[in-house]
Amino acid sequence: MSNRQFLVALAGNPNVGKSTVFNALTGLRQHTGNWTGKTVALLEGTARYRDAVLRFVDLPGTYSLRVNSREEEVARDFLLAEEPDVTVCVVDATCLERNLSLVLQVMTVTPRCVVCLNLMDEARKHGIHIDTGLLAKELGIPVVPTAARSGEGLQNLLEAVYEAAQGYGGAESTRGSWKTNGTFSTESPEGSPKIGGTLSTEELEGGEPAEKRAGSACSTAGEDVKDPSFCSGGGVRDQSLVSSFSDSEVEVMYQEAERIASRVVRRPGATARTLTDRLDDIVTSRLFGIPIMLLLLGIVFLITVSLANYPSAVLSWVLFRIEDTLSAIMLGLGAPQWLHGILVRGCYRTVAWVVAVMLPPMAIFFPLFTLLEDFGYLPRVAFNLDHLFQKSGGHGKQALTMSMGFGCNAAGVVAARIIESPRERLIAILTNCFVPCNGRFPTLILISGIFFRGEGLLGAAGPGLAMLGVILTGVGITLVVSRILTETILKGVPSSFVLELPPYRKPEIWKTIARSWKDRTVWVLKRAVAVALPCGAITWLAANVTLAGQPVIAHLANLLQPFAALIGMDGVILTAFILGFPANEIVIPIALMSYLSQGTMIDLGSTDVIGAVLRSNGWRWTTGLSVLLFSLLHFPCGTTVYTVYKETGSRKWAAMSVLIPTVVACAVLFVLNTVFGLAGLK
Amino acid sequence: MRDATGPSASLLGEQLTLRRYPRAAQGDATGVATRQSPRLTPLSDTSSGCVMYLASNQTGGLLKQRLVDLGFIKGTPLRLIRKGPGGNLIAVQVRNTVIALRSEEARHLLVAPEPSSSPVSRE
């Protein structure tokens, strides 16, 4: 028999390097049905080992299998419904006790487990010694020590999984269907009274040898069965029989975890202050916490803004050459002008634009941000900012969903699942679009580069400062709107805040960059191109089909002009924002196209050329500022609205996610431009 | 991506029984408020650095579940590490991990300078 397939689930606490294990095992042979930003949707990858194909599924990181959060629900439902052949529990060797409680829960619901004792390198560094042999004996399942970052132990892990999948190697959780009290298996499908028996508190306290307990845990109809294989499978996994663990059951598991950990883990007596402690003293201090955060964000944006121009210029030069060649070929083949217009001037040019403008900033921003994320800095942001969110009725974790929103608002909306309370989660979802996503970054970067770049060293920092100002404005508006929502349609008592602050870890720089490219940059770019293609054609048609002597787009622009003027913009850019609803990336390309189709076509060029086009169409710095703010505050893109609908299951909230930002954007700009008008700046 | 409409926690929770833990269930239900000894201090009021033992978890609902999941069990040693920049958060060391909590929630975690008798037999 060759190429047997086995389904292997990877379970574990958050921050135990589960994704590192997953990536190291499966390499690039991964795919996911939908969102790849963070492990909430299930990522699947394959590894070949000997004659088998191991299909690994990366479950969300959870602290338990109780249904407190969506992640836990996803993880538990997967284990119960998909019935993986083997479940690998990835545990953190530096805090075994906490991790073991999850292992015990997993062992309760799934028949074959392997423990991957990860972060052994870190444990060694801290002088923590773990008797893996004894741990395996205590748990009754294989334990493989690994350090996934360096690849240590991964071959052994594959071997253990391979053996477990075939039903040998002792992976049958002998405590098998480790049960506390009748939660999971009060009846079996056949109707016999008890499948797994129970493991009572008394038995746990007694400290009997593991084998004995394993036996009693597996007893069927009161009969002690020593053979562990009797315990595999069974009615435990029938979903209809399964409910959640109770507090007392988890407490019992913790006592057991404590007992095991106290036997297998030896820690150095006097613990020196770790690097994490010392860093946190500064990073989360009252004095430096927020300034350091602003500084880090500022540096990330400054690097992005100042470096993105060069590759952008090269890309647009290359892509424009290709457009010339395409034009020559098409016209040479005798293609009609309209077809050439739609395909080359419309589709190709828009796509080229999106690629040239978006790719470089994303390719710089995402890796930088992912580095901060992998370093462990983001939970500190939530820690530093919770008091602000608490005052506005939100949750500190909203800072994390906002951070994710910088990548993609749809991703940010999905990330709001980490907020358990529905009220705060809705607040986070509805306000997520007030942080500029990468689809808007090119617009923001471009506009700040054109209208806020000054002379000299200080002037060169102007665009970066403008960006920082825009982002801080977004954060401020988020807080204000959260507060307003709390006072009006989302009344309620703010819920609790519980957040782990994991130790800082040196990010794996190259892997992080590669991963952020694959997971974020390429994914977002693909989506943008897919949207840009049809939009390019539609926009070209709107700009070239004439009604009553004027192109359609001009009619639209004229229609919107009076309103646009009130909020400091013109009809063309407002039309572009509306036509750009499918993807914010193409707002500026659409605007330029409408401007340019009235004159002669010029090449996709540098910031200066675009600036010249905009200025020649009457843009001033106040227009630039208005567009910056409108871009920041306006309705989210179509994908995000659809995601809100999916996440909330409600058309009403999806509609609110459009309505709230639109009203906010118009109100802010109206006030601002009225003030400008009174001050004589317009 | 899963839809929001899954089996809800509360639905599943209703199927729960606590038959085997009459004592434990009672201990939680009666609450410590009635027999609070002066030695118990809210976790949020302890001074940073010193180890205290969880005597009573008087939080409720999701928060309590979450805390239990993270290992805040009766008798667990806890150490307040620091307060957050806003003054509302505390970072607590529990089972070799660091967990951030809001002070007004940590107020409902009562700690004692030494572990209470046996964590399992609650009295």
Low-pLDDT windows of residues of chain B? 1-36, 118-123
- Determine the fraction of residues in helical runs of chain A and give it as a percent range: 55-70%
CATH topology of chain B: SH3 type barrels
Instruction: Count the E strands of chain B.
Output: 6
Which strand order spans the largest sheet of chain A, edge to edge or round the barrel?
Answer: 2-3-4-1-5-6-8
Number of domains of chain A: 2
Helix content of chain B: 10-25%
Oligomer: heterodimer
Low-confidence segments of chain A, given as residue ranges, are 33-40, 174-242, 599-604
Distance between the termini of chain B: 46 Å
Strand order of the largest sheet of chain B: 1-6-2-3-4-5
Q: Main sheet of chain B?
A: 6 strands, antiparallel
Strand content of chain A: 5-15%
Gyration radius over CA of chain A? 29 Å
**Structural class of the secondary elements of chain B?**
alpha+beta
What is this entry, summarized?
By secondary structure, chain A is of the alpha/beta class. In chain A, 59% of the residues lie in helices and 8% in strands.
List the helices and strands and how they pair.
The complex is a heterodimer of chains A (682) and B (123).
Chain A lengths: L3 E9 L5 H9 L3 E3 L10 E7 L2 E7 L11 H12 L4 E7 L3 H14 L3 E6 L1 H6 L3 E2 L1 H8 L3 E3 L8 H12 L35 H6 L3 H8 L29 H18 E2 L8 H9 L5 H44 L4 H39 L2 H14 L6 H10 L1 H7 L6 H10 L9 H11 L4 H5 L1 H26 L10 E3 L8 H36 L1 E2 L2 E2 H15 L4 H9 L7 H10 L10 H10 L4 H13 L4 H11 L2 H28 L4
Parallel strand pairs in A: 1-4, 1-5, 5-6, 6-8
Antiparallel strand pairs in A: 2-3, 3-4, 7-9, 11-12
Chain B lengths: L8 H6 L7 H9 L10 E2 L8 E7 L3 H9 L7 E7 L5 E6 L2 E6 H4 L2 E4 L11
Antiparallel strand pairs in B: 1-6, 2-3, 2-6, 3-4, 4-5
